[in-house]
Design a protein that fits this description.
The protein is 73% helix and 0% strand. The protein is mainly alpha-helical. The chain has a domain of 219 residues: ABC transporter involved in vitamin B12 uptake, BtuC. It is a multi-pass membrane protein.
């Protein structure tokens, strides 16, 4: 053996005090932090699991406390009497309305943002609120102040819901199945239609008398008191049915969150899933809007909080946390403003103010839409 070959073998051979690698093991193993970052499961480690369970537990306790507070606080009747249960039953209807509206907005917003692959856009961009305003304004413009009462009742509730649903489904089935097949064009046309309906509503409102305008304004703000108890037996099963369908499609939503190209490569029929999700979103938002009126930022607020505190891609973990956040915020605001400050009608205004502020902060921090 030559001197150079011996020197090379001595240089490359492992020394006695160096640990021997088992056969087939790579030279460099990733550390624990890198392994956690590369983990594909929704829960990366025990610390993440403890954080998620802690947040869910706190939200559950707060939700129960707020529910008990609304049901029992400042009830003038004697506990257990017929009058006490009558008042508690009326408050129960308000809690059910809050739960249904929160469920609809949370499920719809998270699913919609996954479908369009954007965590800023909300389903309100499809023009649901503008169409609701146009319907209410049109009835008052044609029939006067009595037009508001003409929209009260179960048939009228379903009529408003169906009209909003037809607008949304007709819009995206036409645009997503046509030659354009572009979701951004669909969203842009939704913005244009919403702006057109808003301008039409403003024009009709200028032609109203002051008394008619006052009656109309009370209906145009999202208000829990707008919902009637006879709507709930129909709204609750529909909301639960759509929620179950979205829950069962959570795995598809997880894949769609990776983007269109990745979802197609993984075998997802992207266009069919997209149209199906948008149809379910339209049902939820149209029903919630017909129930209490338009709310632009409730879904955005609950979805954003769920993204921040759940810190996972799994929709089966995002959905329940978003619902608990929304229910606690809306029910807590209702309890404080109605029972402590005697301003129950302003709860949706306050929630919209907070949601809009969070939206602006998010935009300014991110720097783009």
């Amino acid at each position: 053996m030559s001197t150079s070959q011996a020197h090379t073998e001595a240089h490359t051979a492992p020394s006695a005090d160096q640990p021997q690698r088992p056969p087939g093991q790579s030279a460099r193993q990733p550390d624990s932090a890198t392994a956690r970052r590369r983990h594909s499961k929704p829960i990366t480690d025990k610390k993440h699991l403890r954080k998620y369970l802690l947040v869910m537990s706190l939200l559950t306790v707060l939700a129960i406390a707020v529910t008990v507070g609304i049901m029992t606080y400042d009830n003038p009747a004697e506990f257990g009497s017929r009058g006490w249960w009558l008042i508690a039953g009326m408050r129960r209807d308000s809690l059910l309305t809050i739960a249904v509206v929160t469920l609809c907005h949370t499920m719809a917003t998270i699913a919609f943002q996954t479908a369009v692959n954007n965590r800023i856009i909300t389903p309100g961009i499809m023009g649901f609120g503008s169409l609701y305003t146009a319907i209410q304004t049109g009835f008052v413009y044609i029939f006067g102040a009595a037009g508001v009462t003409m929209l009260v009742g179960v048939p009228q509730f379903f009529l408003q819901m169906i009209v909003m649903l037809l607008l949304a489904t007709g819009l995206y089935t036409w645009l997503l199945s046509g030659k354009f097949s572009n979701i951004h064009i669909m969203l842009l046309i939704g913005v244009v239609i919403g702006g057109t309906l808003a301008s039409l509503s403003n024009f009709m409102q200028r032609m109203l008398t002051p008394s008619e305008f006052d009656v109309l304004t009370a209906q145009l703000f999202g208000n829990i008191s707008n919902a009637r108890a006879e709507y709930l037996p129909y709204a609750i099963p529909i909301a639960l049915l759509v929620t179950v369908v979205l829950w069962l499609r959570s795995s598809k939503l997880n894949v769609m969150a990776l983007g269109k190209t990745t979802a197609l490569n993984l075998g997802v029929n992207y266009k069919r899933e997209l149209i199906g999700i948008l149809a379910l979103v339209s049902i939820l938002i149209s029903m919630a809007t017909a129930l209490i009126g338009p709310m632009m930022f409730l879904g955005f607020l609950t979805a954003m909080l769920a993204y921040q505190f759940a810190d996972t891609y799994s929709h089966r973990m995002l959905f329940p946390m978003g619902f608990l956040f929304g229910y606690t915020i809306l029910a807590g605001g209702y309890f404080i403003l109605r029972h402590l400050w005697d301003a129950g009608g302003a709860v949706t205004v306050i929630v919209e103010l907070i949601g809009g502020t969070v939206f602006l902060i998010f935009i300014l921090r991110k720097g783009r839409l």
